[in-house]
Design a protein that fits this description.
Keywords: Isomerase. About 45% of the residues lie in helices and about 15% in strands. It is an alpha/beta fold. The strands form 2 sheets. A 7-stranded parallel beta sheet has the order 3-2-1-4-5-6-7, sandwiched between helices. Helix 1 packs parallel to helix 2, helix 1 crosses helix 7 and helix 1 packs across helix 16. The protein is globular, with a radius of gyration of 20 Å. Bound molecules: uridine-5'-diphosphate.
Amino acid sequence: MSRRIMTIYGTRPEAIKVAPVIRGLEAHPDLESVTVVTGQHREMLDQVNEIFGITPDHDLDVFAHGQTLNGLMAKVFDRLDPVLVAERPDAVVVQGDTSTVAAASIAAFYRQIPVVHVEAGLRSGDIHSPFPEEANRKLTSQTTALHLAPTPTSRANLEREAVDPAGIAVTGNTVIDALLHTVGQDVPLTDPRLQAVEDADRPVLLVTTHRRENWGGAMEGVGRALARVAKTYPEHVLVLPAHRNPIVREAVLPALEGLENVVVTEPLAYGEFTRVMARASIVLTDSGGVQEEAPSLGKPVLVMRENTERPEAVDAGTVRLIGTGEDRIVEEMSRLLDDPAAYAAMANAVNPYGDGRAAERSVAAIAEMFGLGERLPDFGS
Ligand code: UDP
């Protein structure tokens, strides 16, 4: 009898990171894959599903402009429950730390369906940062039956919180599976300005920013810092794929208007984004996923946050936490651009987050829950 595994996800980063797992579930002879999107992000989510060839079986369509976190959670509970009842999955898979994940895992738990948490055990140690993700991770750990920790550090975090070690498997992060699958595929650049940058072989500084706790004054400072960097280094091109959220755009973009060497784009399709990242000389970001991807491409990464739940690449020397202060951002970018030794010290390709086999380990651990075969050895063991 095949087991029905329901994967529930709602945002772009979740889609990128669950896509390799969904592919693996589909390929397993004794597992049946059912997919549910909440639609917490809309266009950015659809874009990723399209790239990985996934057509969701259910779409809860919860997105609304300006919706509160509580409004979003309430909608997910309300619309997911009938799907759980109708589909009767044997397990529910969630990924990461969004409000979709927290709501879906509690909803599954209330229906007594075992929860599998992909990317379990990340902790910044500050419940307010990232907000609300740190709380979402901890809430999800409470209802999870199988914790798929990406690294030995995340396993140790869970064990420190008294999670039963037998319920944890270390898989590597599935984002590296997605990255290795995608990078190097010669996807066309749909924005002609990006193609022109490549044709002219201009060095690229890639920037992404969206974190909720940086909204407002901090993000305005980021915009001013970017403008100062662009003016000081006119031979470089600063590429900023702008997040869809209007709050982010209104804070960052005004300072950048009219600068020849700043290219602000719509969110890039994953293949295009990884193509630009692979060419970039420095990555400046507050993103979780980008912090994991860029080190494996050997890019120095400056992270605009005060703390991180991803210490592995900081320890390896390719990621530096710099906060969101305007002067500090300019100073750290200048240091890398002016000092070849400082640049070389950070530009090491390291893969602390995965080896491209995370989905395989995840699917093996899910199958083992049902007595279908053995787990694979832990990543990094
Ligand atoms: N990404 C993308 N297009 C973009 C910007 C980012 O495909 O224009 C990808 C990126 O490669 C990474 C993920 O989106 O895999 C990160 O998403 P985001 O920064 O929104 O979320 P976080 O990782 O911080 O949760």
